[in-house]
Amino acid sequence: MVLVMGALVVNAQTTPLKVTDLQKSITDNITKDYAGFTIKSANKVVENNVVTYNVVVAKGTLQETLCYDNSGKFLKKLDAKGGMAKPETKPAVQPTAPKKN
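Structure (tokenized):
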């Protein structure tokens, strides 16, 4: 399993892009659908000869990673990966301590 995952990582090539180098269709989509968000970073990803663009946008403490195809069409939001901890939820019922005899 580890070898398979390693092979997948090796096949994808990620290149950082300047925000100004993004296609107009991508920046137009973000302006329209993510009003108030700013573009923090962008990467060109080539995997199995398929080019996509991952764009990180932020508004306050909210951060999203958006994926676009080679023509600049929105594909999907990517799930948060390492470093983004989800808030811990408390159980609805607090466990009680065992009674001592």
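The helical segments are 2-11, 24-33. Confidence is low (pLDDT under 50) at residues 1-8, 82-91.
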